[in-house]
Amino acid sequence: TARLQGKTALITGGAGGCGLAASERFAAEGAKVGIVDLPGAKGEEVARRLREAGHQAIFAPADVSDAGQVARAVATVEDAFGPITVLMNHAGILAALPFLETGEEEWDRVMAVNVKSMFLVTKAVLPGMIAAGGGSVICTSSISAVVGTPMEVLYCTSKGACHMFARAIAVEFRDRGIRANAICPGFIATAHGLREIEMLGKQGVDVSEGMIAQAQGRLCKPEEVAAAALFLASDDASFVNGAHLFADNGYTAI
Ligand code: NAD
């Protein structure tokens, strides 16, 4: 049976990488899916493809670091599909550069897209979710929330914040039926993951896809992140709240 039947899901970054895999999987499991991604991203195409396959999906363009755009996108999804009962805060960007060369603008941009976005989107979604009787918030964190990776002070700091955002939301809202959990993927062969390897290489960090794959056994697949998110989104996780679910094949367990 479909595990998300009757739920409305909003996925930020839902048009690319693991966000796309989650949009596809959530729709296949019966959710009505609101894809929030940058204007001009492939969101419209993805939503159309899902509708052609018989699912309910809509694209609501927004830069998730912009309060006005977030408010409009959340309203668009709620108008189309009713209150959002699954929120996946997935959109995020990379930074791989020496700490002493990190500019203030770069710092603010990454913190805005990776962290402030969770504040803006979650704050816009929660009133409807609470009124609907509760729901699930999933925040995409990373192994970089718990292990320092070279040249990634900014990125690791932002992911550490995502990590604790989920936990503190869980504590503040559990009496209103809200569950909030974080997913912490290892290295994934998405545009983001492959860019990370390339950027680190340019900084002289001795990494390669092969080395990273070796550390985890292999690279993580976007579908595996989507499957972990599906569990957290579904009622199977009804007593799972404030958890950090690692999808890294034991990379951080050593
Ligand atoms: P990706 O780059 O393949 O896709 C990210 C999606 O987010 C894209 O569709 C992009 O358009 C969208 N996006 C970017 N900035 C946005 C903004 N300001 N507003 C709205 N949408 C925006 O990435 P991915 O591999 O799916 O990774 C994304 C998330 O996963 C990030 O939060 C990242 O920290 C996390 N993560 C990735 C890896 C990895 O190795 N790829 C590992 C751990 C965690």
Structural class of the helices, strands and pairings? alpha/beta
Uncertain spans: none
CATH architecture: 3-Layer(aba) Sandwich
- Anisotropy-based shape: globular
The CATH superfamily label reads NAD(P)-binding Rossmann-like Domain
Small molecules in complex:
nicotinamide-adenine-dinucleotide
For the report, how would you describe the main beta sheet? 7 strands, parallel
**Residue-averaged pLDDT:** 96
**Overall helicity:** 40-55%
Specify the CATH class: Alpha Beta
Tell me the series of helices and strands, N- to C-terminal.
EHEHEHEHEHEHHHE
- Determine the number of helices (DSSP H or I, runs of at least 4 residues): 8
Would you give the CATH topology?
Rossmann fold
Distance between the termini: 37 Å
- Total number of domains: 1
Give the percentage of residues in beta strands: 5-15%
Q: Which strand order does the major sheet show?
A: 3-2-1-4-5-6-7
Keywords: Oxidoreductase
GO molecular function: oxidoreductase activity
Protein name: Short-chain dehydrogenase/reductase SDR
Pfam family, one: adh_short_C2
Quick structural gist:
The chain has 254 residues and is an alpha/beta fold. It contains eight helices and seven strands.
What do you see in this structure?
The chain has 254 residues and is of the alpha/beta class. It has a single domain (8-186, 221-248), classed as NAD(P)-binding Rossmann-like Domain (Rossmann fold, 3-Layer(aba) Sandwich), CATH 3.40.50.720. 46% of the residues lie in helices and 14% in strands. The protein is built from eight helices and seven strands, in the order E-H-E-H-E-H-E-H-E-H-E-H-H-H-E. The protein has helices at 17-28, 43-52, 67-81, 104-131, 153-173, 191-202, 209-216, 222-233; strands at 8-12, 32-36, 57-59, 86-89, 135-140, 178-185, 244-247. A seven-stranded parallel β-sheet has the order 3-2-1-4-5-6-7, with helices on both faces. Helix 1 (17-28) packs across helix 8. It is globular and about 50 Å long. The protein starts with 7 loop residues before the first strand and ends in a 7-residue tail after the last strand. 50% of the residues are buried. The structure holds nicotinamide-adenine-dinucleotide. Nicotinamide-adenine-dinucleotide binds next to helix 1 and helix 6. Nicotinamide-adenine-dinucleotide is lined by residues 12-13, 15-19, 37-38, 41, 63-65, 90-93, 113, 140, 142, 159, 185, 187-188, 190-193, 196.
